Amino acid sequence: MSLKHKTIYGAAWSFAEALFLKGLSFIAMLLLARWLGPIDFGLIGMIAVFIGIGTSLVDSGMSSSIIRTKDADDDDYTTVFYMNMTISLIVYALMFYSAPYIALFYKQEVLISVIRVYCLIFIISAFSAVQLAILNKEMRFKRMTLLNAPSIIIGVGVGLYMGYNNYGVWSIITMYMTSQIVLSVLLWITGSWKPSLNFSKEKLKYHYNFGYKIMLSGLLDTIFKNSYQIIIGKFFPVQTLGHYERAKRFNEYPSTLITGILGKVTYPMLAQLQDDPPRLSMIYRRLLRMAFFIIAPLMLGLAAMAEPLFELILGPEWVPAVPYFQILSLAAMLHPIHAFNVNVLKVYGRSDLFLKLEIFKKSFLTLALIIGFQFGVIGLVWSGVFTSVISLAINTYYSSKLIDYSTKMQFLDMLPILLLAGLTFLLMYYSVYLFMDFSNITQLTIATLLGITFYLLIHSFFKASPLYDLVTIIKNRKL
Which segments cross the bilayer (predicted)? Predict the structure, then answer.
């Protein structure tokens, strides 16, 4: 199968996984939010940074190194496996003994047991990280989807059962852990690769030299990305953190869904094109425009309908989360573009530059956090939007050094899409306002139909629109 067919085929299966499986998880979280309330989700928000740190440490960036290594063999896989397992045990031990201090910081004693149980996921994930990396490298996305299906279905079933029976925060923890355990077991049962005894110091050095910079970049990103939860959890009521945490997660779902599909499929594809920069640049540009064509109206449309949407799906107690959700939508629509630019750096092995950029960008975030904190939670949320825009400018500048696609060209490609998405937002927002005396379902239905019709109709008049690229791919299966 050719590279382009592998990419399109992989995108189709990744989309199916995102639509049905991640959609199922998303619906489960909506139900749990109705049953549990803001406090339980506030507790999860408090430990998000520590889970993120542990995940970055355990992977160490070596899975990305495996994917980009063209001639990776059993020695590579075995070495990375043993290293991941060793690090996971060390990280879990650190989190186990740190749990009381974290609980004391937030003044929430229940966090001791929550952290000690939830962090077992580090060891579970490390157990199957190499198997997943091999499937990604070989672009076997159908297999990944079929393995993910039972793991997510079983995990969701367990989580919903516990949530319905008032197990509180443990419902959320058990849902995630069950899914990961089932996936790991299935990967080991069905996978052809098993670790040998061939641990190689040379292979370790090779993958670690690339991976540790990715790991440090991930650590920086995790710490600063979750710094909002730390500040809100420390200085504001736990309900406020619960509202922010759900607004952020629900806001991230569509953007990370699209980013995840495109990132998972395009990273191995771009890695195979690293010796053909003109073709890589051409495909990259088309993918970026199509991604923004989808994500910009989606996020702005959801922001326009946020109030009736939250009230209908989550209930009145979650309406205070609406302003956070609307502001965060501005940053979320840039997530796929960030991912594309970062993938270019990884494809060309520039993990050193990747790390330097993270340090540079986080200096802006620190300043934005200090200023934003002076204006309360809303100020903190707006600071995230500001840093996202600045980070995008930095990412595009340095990725353009590797491919012929400058920052100016990227922004000019996105500008017309953004303008039309902005007009769609205004149309949907004011339709919700005009029909505010009607039911939530009526408001959402009218706004959605108007938004979709207007956006696609306007785009259909422009031959240069990404809409035509998307239709061409669907019809002819050509990038």
Answer: 12-33, 39-58, 79-104, 110-134, 146-164, 170-191, 287-304, 324-344, 364-394, 414-432, 444-462
